[in-house]
């Protein structure tokens, strides 16, 4: 599936629509889907039957791969990452993968070093440190 | 959304929203990927009767969570199968990231990892320090995907640095 320009997440070529859309980290999606599931549980005895396979698999996936479980922690993570001039896409990849070093972060999100923003290694390390503090005190 | 008049009345809005959710959640959009969940209704426009039928069509604007892969994206997934490919004696495995199926060929697995048969077929590093088998969590990079009406599948790799088995949060092979 391709548009006029070839898509490439490493260069942040993901289409205008997705660049401007709100991206969610796994932990945020987990809160949304769990909330929806709880609402279903209140009106139905067998909520699993009411949801699509896509919903069920998505819920299992985001629950398993959420680095942060507590809603306050999730909010803090978004707040920390939002201070660093990242696109929504970059913010979510970092929030999902939680790299430990600047080197790892740049390997996961190469566009950090491009697009004219020149994030320094120190700035990236500080950001990652702040993230790991949230994890430690969750 | 199209609705039959039998659903009109006091619960019209509720019926419309239920139908929307039933019709749209769990489907696949060519542009947006999987529609995992409808999260809200922005607006419901005036209904128009379709000529020659009793059905009424309502334009509905809604918000939803969608999920699709991007070329070059790095994400985490669960290994679902490790099996040998009989055609060319290569060994491949399938992983899943939620509803997304990911295929990794042995060309995209580090050269120092070898396929081992047995009750729990797996890939083991030559020094024995890393073993990837069913239900392991791995971090991989997407290289190409295809979307059709029933599924989205993609090709991934664990061959690069910082990819591969996730032993604990933040650490990779």
Beta-strand portion of chain A reads under 5%
Rounded radius of gyration of chain B (Å)? 23 Å
Q: What series of H and E elements makes up the topology of chain B?
A: EHEEEEEEEEEEEEEEE
Order of helices and strands of chain A: HHHHHHHH
Protein chain pair with the most extensive contact, residues per chain: A-B, 41 and 36 residues
Unreliable spans of chain B: 86-91, 169-173
Oligomer: heterodimer
- Level-2 CATH architecture of the largest domain in chain B: Beta Barrel
Radius of gyration of chain A: 17 Å
Number of strands of chain B: 16
Strand content of chain B: over 45%
Task: Give the CATH H-level superfamily of the largest domain in chain B.
Answer: Nucleic acid-binding proteins
Assign an overall shape of chain A.
globular
**Which class of the largest domain in chain B in CATH terms?**
Mainly Beta
Low-confidence stretches of chain A: none
Helix content of chain B: under 10%
The amount of helix of chain A comes to: 55-70%
> Number of DSSP strands of chain A?
0
Main location (chain A): nucleus
Organism (chain A): Brassica carinata (Ethiopian mustard)
Keywords (chain A): Nucleus
Family (chain A): Belongs to the eukaryotic RPB4 RNA polymerase subunit family.
Walk me through the structure.
Chain A has 138 residues and is mainly alpha-helical. Chain A is 61% helix and 0% strand. Chain A has helices at residues 16-20, 26-43, 47-50, 53-64, 71-82, 88-97, 102-108, 121-136. In chain A, helix 5 packs antiparallel against helix 8 (121-136). The model of chain A has no long low-confidence stretch (mean pLDDT 87). Chain B is mainly beta. Chain B has two domains: 2-67, Dna Ligase, domain 1 (2-Layer Sandwich), CATH 3.30.1490; 74-167, OB fold (Dihydrolipoamide Acetyltransferase, E2P), CATH 2.40.50. Helices cover 8% and strands 51% of the residues of chain B. Chain B contains one helix and 16 strands. Chain B has a five-stranded mixed barrel. In chain B, strands 1-5-4 form a three-stranded antiparallel beta sheet, covered by helices on one side. In chain B, a hairpin with a 2-residue loop joins strand 8 and strand 9 (100-104). Chain B is elongated and about 70 Å long. Chains A and B meet through helix 2, helix 4, helix 6 and helix 7 of A and strand 3, strand 7 and strand 13 of B.
């Amino acid at each position: 599936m391709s548009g006029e320009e070839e898509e490439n997440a490493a260069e942040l070529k993901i289409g205008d629509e997705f660049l401007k859309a709100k991206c969610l980290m796994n932990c945020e999606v987990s809160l949304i889907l769990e909330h929806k599931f709880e609402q279903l549980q209140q009106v139905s005895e067998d909520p699993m039957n009411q949801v699509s396979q896509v919903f069920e698999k998505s819920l299992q996936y985001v629950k398993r791969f959420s680095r942060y479980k507590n809603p306050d922690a999730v909010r803090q993570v978004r707040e920390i990452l939002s201070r660093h001039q990242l696109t929504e896409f970059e913010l979510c990849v970092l929030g999902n993968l939680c790299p430990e070093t600047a080197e790892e972060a740049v390997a996961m999100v190469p566009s950090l070093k491009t697009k004219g923003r020149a994030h320094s290694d120190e700035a990236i390390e500080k950001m990652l440190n702040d993230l790991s503090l949230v994890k430690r005190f969750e | 959304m199209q609705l039959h008049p039998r659903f009109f009345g006091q619960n019209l809005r509720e019926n419309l929203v239920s139908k929307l959710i039933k019709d749209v959640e769990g489907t696949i959009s060519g542009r947006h990927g999987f529609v995992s969940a409808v999260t809200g209704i922005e607006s419901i426009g005036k209904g128009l009767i379709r000529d020659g039928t009793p059905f009424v069509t309502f334009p509905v604007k809604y918000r939803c969570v969608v999920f699709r892969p991007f070329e070059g994206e790095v994400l985490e997934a669960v290994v679902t199968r490790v099996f040998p490919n009989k055609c060319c004696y290569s060994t491949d495995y399938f992983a899943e990231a939620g509803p997304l199926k990911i295929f990794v060929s042995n060309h995209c697995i580090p050269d120092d990892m070898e396929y081992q048969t047995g009750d729990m077929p797996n890939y083991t590093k030559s020094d024995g320090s890393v073993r990837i088998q069913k239900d392991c969590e791995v971090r991989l990079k997407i290289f190409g995907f295809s979307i059709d009406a029933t599924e989205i599948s993609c090709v991934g790799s664990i061959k690069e640095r910082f990819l591969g088995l996730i032993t604990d949060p933040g650490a990779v092979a």
